[in-house]
Specification:
TIM Barrel; single chain; globular; alpha/beta; two-stranded antiparallel sheet
C-alpha cells in the first residue's frame, strides 16, 4: 500500500476525501463531492446517521465478529458493495477496473455504471462478483445489445436506476466548467486551465489516458456515446414501470430497482417481481429536498417485508453507518463516494484503503455492541431520535 495512505496518515474516509481534494482539480473534485442545487439532501444523507444511536449489549466477549453476508444469491465477505459511479476513469485512469479489482480483493461485489470509461468485459475480468447498472441510453435496440453483453460476460444482476428522468442540476459542475472539460475545443477550456495545471499528477495521468473517453457500454447506431451527450441521453431514456416487463424478458437473472424513496414505490417494485430494491436518492445528486435515505429505509423495509431484499445507498462515511443501516433492515449497503475518494487519491491502493477503513470500523463496532455477526443486527441494537423516520 502507498506509504501516504498507511495508518496513521489516513484514519478515516474524511482523510481520504482530503487526499482526493489535494490531487484533483476543482472541476473533478466537485463533480465527485458535490450534489444537486442547494445540496440539502446531500447534507441530510450524512447528518441523519447522527440521529440513530446504538444500544450495546455489554460484558459480551466477541473474539472475531463475522461481517459476511449473502446478497442476490452471492456470498460476500463484507455487507457492502461498491456502488456505480459514472466517469470513474476521470478520477483515475484505472477507474472502474480499480474499483472492481479492489472489491474482488476484499471478497465483495462491484456495480458497474453504464456511464463508464472501461468496457464491461474488462471490468468483469477483474472480479467475478459484478453487477451491471443500466441506463436505457440509445433506445431499446442499443439497451438490448448492452443487456446481452452483460449477460454473456457473466454479470450476476441488473440494477435499474429509476431516479434520472432528467439529470439533476449540479451547480458546481456548471460553474467549474465540467462541460468544457468534456468537450474537445480548447478555447472554452482556457478559463479553467490554471486550476487544472496546478494539479500536474492528475493532469499527466488524464492526458496519458487519452483525455475524456467515449462510453464503451453505451453504444448506439453511431458508436459509443460521447461524455458530452450523456445529459440529453438520460432525459430521452427515462425509465417507466412499464419497461420492467420488457427488461425481464431479456434478463433472466435478479433485477434490482435502484432509486426507491417511498414505501409506495417499493411495494410497486415488489408487485412487479423484482429481487431487491435499493433505497437511494442518488447521493443527493438528483432531486434536492428529499429526505436522507436512512430516514426512508424503515418505511421501505416495513412495506416489503420478506418479499424481496432491501439494499441501502447514500451517505455512508463510516463502518458504523453501515451497521446502522443493517439495524434498520438493509441486507447490505452500496458505498460510493467513500471508495471513490480513495480511488482519486491513489488508484487501487486508495480503493483498498477505503474498504479496509470501513471493514475495521465494522469489526470494532460489532465488538463494542456485543454482536457476533452482522446478520444478527436489528432494531433492538439502536434507538432513533423523535422525528427521525420519514414515512
Amino acid at each position: 500500500m502507498t506509504r501516504s495512505l498507511a495508518s496513521p496518515h489516513i484514519l478515516n474516509i474524511a482523510d481520504l476525501r482530503a487526499a482526493a481534494r489535494a490531487r484533483l482539480p476543482d472541476v473533478v473534485f466537485d463533480y465527485l463531492d458535490g450534489a444537486a442545487e442547494g445540496e440539502t439532501t446531500h447534507r441530510d444523507n450524512t447528518s441523519c446517521f447522527d440521529e440513530v444511536m446504538f444500544r450495546p449489549k455489554l460484558a459480551v466477549k466477541i473474539p472475531q465478529p463475522d461481517v459476511s453476508t449473502r446478497v442476490l444469491g452471492t456470498g460476500i465477505a463484507l455487507p457492502l458493495i461498491l456502488a456505480p459511479i459514472g466517469y470513474s476513469r476521470m478520477l483515475h485512469p484505472r477507474g472502474e477496473c480499480a474499483a472492481s479489482a479492489g472489491a474482488a480483493r476484499a471478497g465483495t461485489g462491484y456495480i458497474l455504471s453504464t456511464i463508464s470509461g472501461h468496457s464491461l468485459e474488462a471490468v468483469r475480468a477483474e472480479n467475478e462478483k459484478v453487477f451491471f447498472q443500466l441506463y436505457l441510453m440509445g433506445g431499446r435496440e442499443a439497451s438490448e445489445a448492452t443487456i446481452d453483453r452483460a449477460a454473456k460476460a457473466g454479470y450476476r444482476a441488473l440494477f435499474l436506476t429509476i431516479d434520472t428522468a432528467v439529470a439533476g442540476f449540479r451547480e458546481k459542475d456548471f460553474r467549474n466548467g465540467m462541460s468544457q472539460l468534456m468537450g474537445k475545443p480548447l478555447l472554452p477550456k482556457l478559463k479553467y486551465l490554471p486550476n487544472i495545471l496546478a494539479h500536474p499528477r492528475w493532469l499527466a495521468g488524464f492526458l496519458r489516458d487519452g483525455g475524456m473517453p467515449h462510453l464503451p457500454n453505451a453504444v448506439a447506431a453511431g458508436g459509443p456515446l460521447r461524455a458530452t451527450d450523456v445529459a440529453a441521453a438520460l432525459e430521452s431514456a427515462a425509465v417507466c414501470w412499464e419497461d420492467l416487463e420488457w427488461i425481464r424478458n431479456l434478463w433472466k437473472g435478479p433485477i434490482v430497482i435502484k432509486g426507491i424513496q417511498t414505501a409506495d414505490d417499493a411495494r410497486r417494485a415488489v408487485d412487479l417481481g423484482v429481487s431487491a430494491v435499493a433505497v437511494s436518492n442518488h447521493g443527493g445528486r438528483q432531486l434536492d429536498g428529499v429526505p436522507g435515505s436512512l430516514r426512508v429505509l424503515p418505511a421501505v423495509v416495513d412495506a416489503v417485508g420478506e418479499q424481496c431484499e432491501v439494499l441501502f445507498d447514500s451517505g455512508i462515511r463510516r463502518g458504523a453507518d453501515i451497521l446502522k443501516a443493517l439495524c434498520l433492515g438493509a441486507k447490505a449497503v452500496l458505498v460510493g463516494r467513500a471508495y471513490a475518494y480513495g480511488m482519486a487519491a491513489a488508484g487501487d491502493d486508495g480503493v483498498d484503503r477505503a474498504i479496509e477503513i470501513l471493514r475495521s470500523d465494522m469489526v470494532r463496532t460489532l465488538k463494542l455492541l456485543g454482536c457476533p455477526t452482522v446478520r444478527a443486527l436489528g432494531r433492538g441494537h439502536i434507538s432513533m431520535r423523535p422525528g427521525f423516520r420519514a414515512d
